[in-house]
Design brief:
Length: 379
């Protein structure tokens, strides 16, 4: 088969740029997620560990994509020296199991996050079953990648003699893998969360917001669908590194969009901290915050107050809808001997419970404490 040559067609830079963008976005969201979980709410879970490992796989995959681009990826076979093309094919093969496991790990990370908020045993068992199936299936796919030829070196070294499965068999396995990935994306981003989250004991806005964020996983499903469209023409003319350019881009997009979608629900405390929370200084506006402060009323006696919090268990705290506690501070005025206690009562949404201020005592030190009451329910 004659090698195709067209020096004007060079998409190696496009491959690197596309993969770099989606990997950088995924890395930024994971770093923010770890900051929220380890510093802000101190609740690191298995889902955080799984998503971190997935990001490591994605970064290694990106490094291999850069190496491929420098060794013929995105170029026609006739425009690349034979030894360079051979090395590029070798690196291309090495990147396949990396992204194969990355796709599986991102599903496991999302599943672990859903288990943390599942209060019904049926959903827990269903999610665990899907996670176990994906892990088992991925290991099986790994064996098909390694043993598709009697000598796997033939995939990058044409001088090696070996027999391989026919193209239709390889394509059928690729279609099956892509279809199962799309199915799990639908299950974890839409089919399972909708009924599970709709019955949570939180207000409508919280439920809708959480489901919309989880629904971002549908973009990973769309990326897998786009990748499928490039499979029929792969390798038909022996121009493998040119044909693989779009498959590489959309495989990396599928993984990194999944990482980003899995991390976004955990970032609400960070958004509140940076942009202003709905506790009076954010979505309700600065004017609402000023109005709240003006509503304080003075009472003549000094009393230490306790603030109580009610939560619906682990649900909100694990999906980024944590109830935030703020430190209570004592203010002392040495020039006055009058003791004044100031309190405020406001009606808030279920997910907007917080203590913004504290009783102010003039002329003496005070001690204030915050008591959190957590109620668990298992239906």
């Amino acid at each position: 088969m004659e090698a195709i040559s067209n020096p004007l067609e060079d998409e190696s830079g496009t491959i690197v740029a596309a993969v770099a963008i989606v990997t950088s976005i995924a890395a930024a969201t994971v770093v923010a997620r770890l900051y929220v979980r380890t510093v802000m709410i101190r609740s690191l879970g298995w889902d955080d560990i799984a998503i971190t490992v997935t990001l490591m796989f994605a970064i290694v995959g990106f490094a291999l994509v850069v190496v491929q681009a420098n060794n013929g990826a995105g170029k026609h076979r006739g425009d690349v020296p034979p030894d360079v093309y051979q090395f590029g094919m070798h690196v291309n093969f090495a990147s396949q199991p990396i992204y194969l496991y990355a796709v599986c790990l991102v599903k496991i990370a999302v599943g672990a996050a859903l288990i943390r908020i599942a209060v019904v045993k049926f959903y827990r068992y269903l999610i665990l079953g899907i996670m176990g199936f994906m892990l088992f299936y991925t290991v099986g796919c790994m064996f098909t990648v390694l043993f598709q030829c009697s000598n796997i070196k033939v995939l990058w070294d044409p001088t090696v003699e070996a027999t391989c499965w026919d193209v239709k068999t390889i394509q059928s396995l690729s279609y099956t893998n892509a279809a199962l990935n799309m199915l799990t994306d639908l299950l974890f981003s839409l089919i399972i969360p909708l009924p599970m989250l709709w019955n949570l004991h939180v207000n409508l806005r919280t439920r809708v917001t959480l489901m919309c964020i989880l629904g971002l996983g549908l973009f990973a499903c769309a990326a897998a669908a786009v990748k499928i469209s490039y499979l029929p023409n792969y390798g038909k003319k022996g121009d493998f590194l040119w044909d693989s350019r779009n498959i590489t881009i959309w495989t990396a997009t599928e993984v990194n969009v999944g990482i980003t979608a899995a991390s976004l629900p955990t970032l609400r405390p960070l958004f509140k901290s940076v942009l202003g929370s709905t506790y009076g200084f954010g979505s309700r506006g600065a004017s609402q915050g000023k109005k709240d402060r003006k509503s304080w009323q003075a009472i003549p006696e000094t009393k230490n107050k306790s603030a109580g919090f009610n939560s619906t268990g682990d649900t909100e705290s694990q999906m980024g809808f944590e109830l935030e506690r703020r430190d209570l501070k004592a203010f002392v005025n040495d020039k006055s001997t009058t003791t004044t206690a100031i309190s405020q009562s406001r009606t808030r949404d279920e997910d907007d419970v917080d203590v913004d201020e504290l009783p102010i005592h003039q002329g003496r030190n005070i001690h204030a404490r915050t008591v959190m009451s957590v109620q668990y329910s298992d239906r």
